[in-house]
Amino acid sequence: MSSLPLAGLRVVDLSRVLAGPYAAQILGDLGADVIKVEHPRGDDTRRWGPPDHDGVAAYYLSANRNKRSRLLDFTRPDDHAALLRLLSRADVLIENFKPGDLARHQLDFPSLHPRCPRLVYCSITGFGHTGPLAPRAGYDALIQAMAGLMSVTGPDPEHPTKVGVAVADLSTGLYAVIAILAALRERERSGLGQHCDLALFDVQVAGLANLGMNFLCSGEVPRPLGDAHPTIVPYQSFATADRPLVIAVGNDPQFAALARALGEPGWAGDPRFASNPARVRHRELLVPAIQARLSLGTRAHWLARLADTGVPHGPIQNLGELAHDPQLLARGLFTAMDDASTPCLRSPIHLSRTPIASYRRPPALGEHAGADWDE
Hints:
The structure is a single chain. A hairpin with a 2-residue loop joins strand 3 and strand 4. This protein has 14 helices and 13 strands. The chain is an alpha/beta fold.
């Protein structure tokens, strides 16, 4: 671990479930010493199975590798004092309690900053520490609904759809890591830590990205388009004679190549389709025409036909298929942890000089009880 970029950094992870533990796991992957502090009953996700692996819920395994476990109930005086000692030697604290909960135990940022002035304190909540909704708990599905994502996801406005993974939680975990690293960099100049206030709601609003900017620029409320794109055509899935595929045309030369592959080279010169703005205006004509052509052949036929055209395309794969994908295998994205039996989703971070080479399995509850925490 000493060769990893964050070696020597100590992180106390007081968070539970996904966004906070995911952020702490990323820091642990990069070499930080992450101490997962849990109430004796443990993180709820330890029991969020099946499925599980050797009796441990897969959900817990997904966000808690490269950590050590310590049991502390900070409502008890002895454990509260032990937590303060731990924090006095820490660089980062990650917590996801509702605003006010930790203040009752003098564990909020204003209480800790005078005692631990160099501590970077990262709070992850549903709605942040300000605003009328700050006291409310936030869960990923709720955030996807309230922050606009579900309104633009799904087949039509009557069927708003949640993204299949907890995208608000995961994105907030990523933003939390960015904020923590930025605060640590600033600490090198000032010598002081600071409070990082991360809210799932804020992150999901920011994650509306081009759709949010479309609304701000035009005033038009975006509508769900299934898997189509609001400002690029064709950029969606299509049925074939057997199984669907995705075509994602990003410019006019790619569209011309697609038209040739489909046996309709004249489309590239048709003023209704020759440019992307024209294709967006005439998507109701173009998309069914593309669909009609693709329906004449199997997915394998069209994947072969498009292979050397420069047209971005690919199959829609389930995880069983993905597990055998040559690209996934080449990148080693499905691997095992250091115990050789616990499965692992490899970190997508590839560093040339200080690579992430191994992964410790998530700790059992209180596994490291004998550690010298005051060292």
